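To: structure subgroup
Subject: Chain for Friday's discussion

All,

I'm putting the inputs and outputs inline so they're searchable in the archive.
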Amino acid sequence: MEVECYHNFRLSIVRSFPGLMPWYYSHFINLTLQADEGELFPIIRFEDHLDVYDGVLEETPSNFSEGDVIGHIRACLLKKRYVIAYLNWKHVESSSFYRRQNMVHEALVYGFDDNSRQLHLLAFQAGGKEYGHITIDYEAFEAVFSRLAEEDWEKQRWFAYYGFPISDVQVTEQSFEFDYRRMFFALERSKAAADSPAIHPTGAQINRFMADYFRRKHAEGNIPQECFPIWGIMVYKTVLHKTMMLQRLEFLQKDRHGDKLQPVVALYQKAHRQAQHLSWISHRYRRLPDPKELKAVAEAYDNLYAAEKRANLLLMEFLVHRQTYNSQKAFRMEAGYGDR
């Protein structure tokens, strides 16, 4: 499940522990506008950032002797820890960036094999996939990692809190309950943004913001071609968000009150279909630009906004019902009404 790059590697750890799935479903509820002014295209990301893993993953800068990065990685993995390491993928043969362009990016090291003298990695645009599982020889890894320190240190050191150049990651808690309170407040932020245009676009309001953006572009007559790659990513993220919400709702339907979620599920199924339609129209425009398609994209975002706003309000009602059910029942028992 792809989110932002920095999330993908950490979530691949989280999702490998069944006991952490309630934590996962309690997070990544809202999309938010990261940047608009000065950008070629509006940048949307999930509201949660790297500090969301506090209490779940412990991430510390690796402390290893010079020339022994492989030894340190092996020691970490033997302790059932993971390693996040940055490389310039221009120099890694299994990368799509090999010999083409500089791309300094993290990867997750999750295994090793002393017989073949290889590390096992999950990496961005490697092995012929968007996120591919690859192997790299010990010697090749050491060479590329050392080269990073020589060529890219000064520029990339600002990513130190993202794990640069190499960090150890340990799962600190392997079991969580679903956090209904956290979900309610995330939905409340979405509602506040939808009720007031002055509030930074968050949650369902993102769709209304994007609808207005595409209406402006329709009036202008086009979207520059250099925007197409980031546009594709932002549309993919929109579809992904609806997919994740449906998975979250399926999880919540296991709750004793879960049958009350069916109207929410129906609305998010509608939103998911609308997001897929939006993706198709957007792809069609990028393949063969036609200004009329921009108006259709705006209308699709309008439909998304209506469905998602209504679904979130119903979901908040469900959460309030669930939170007050037991106390209401206890109050009735105290008043002598019994369980009626």
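Points worth raising on Friday:
The first strand starts at residue 31 and ends at 35.
The longest helix spans residues 291-334.

D.
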